[in-house]
# Entry
Amino acid sequence: MAILALASAAYLLGGYSYGHQIWPMPQLRALKKNFFPAEEPTPSLQQQAERLRRLSDWPGKSDVGCPPQHETTAVLLIIGQSNAANASGQRYRSQHGPALINFFQGRCVIAGSPLLGSSGNEGESWTLLGDKLIASGRYQQVVLIPAAIGASDITRWAPGGDINNLLSDELDIVHRYYRITHVLWHQGEADYLQGTSGADYRRAFKGLLETLRHKGVDAPVLVSVATKCGLARDWQPGNPVATAQRSLWDSATGVFPGVDTDSLLTVTDRYDDCHFAGSGQEKFADAWLDAIHSLP
# Structure
């Protein structure tokens, strides 16, 4: 009887403590929180995109069915920071209608600035490049897959970085529709400003490349030389980040030269000493056209 009475008292005390949140319930909750912390739910792809301020829609976009890929289809994965995103001065729209597509998470629209999938909402150079690729006769159809994030340093693209996680999930969707034919990497201004060493830049890029290959992207990766942003007095063309970018070119690993905007563009080709103006975008797109055509 004594044991039964004690159990009943404990039950009643527990119920009263729980209902009124008095000792020992707050203390027990704290112990549970410290020793058994709740796992953070994995953010959805949409939540990740929103956090990175990727453009998911824009007025006037013309939806079309995602076209099948053929031998004459170029599928460009566009990654990097603001000069690869929607941060340029001039906006463009496809001059070849639905032959030039902007793909974003299973949605296909006729390409035009700003492109869905990258951050920013201004102009970009990739629609212009797509038009030039089609006009050259090399490709009958171009699919742009933008995923560039403004101000992003390379560590965020390497394994363990937030953008690397997003890219991995994004590629799972892309592979349901397309095989990527070219990866265009244009990034480095943030790392120059942060003082990233050449060794650290190469190490992080190697991790990004491993992610791409692990995800089945066997396409050539074109790496730009891009470190110039603003009027930094101590900027030099042979800085550690630029040197590291050049050292990445290696046909054995499928990494080839992209566009050297450090030397290609003049002051007047940038509208704010960093981001490309219309004249800079024209030079940029022409240089990318040459880089792609120069691939073995």
About this structure: The chain has two domains: 2-35, 46-293. The first helix runs from residue 2 to 20. DSSP finds ten helices and seven strands in the chain.
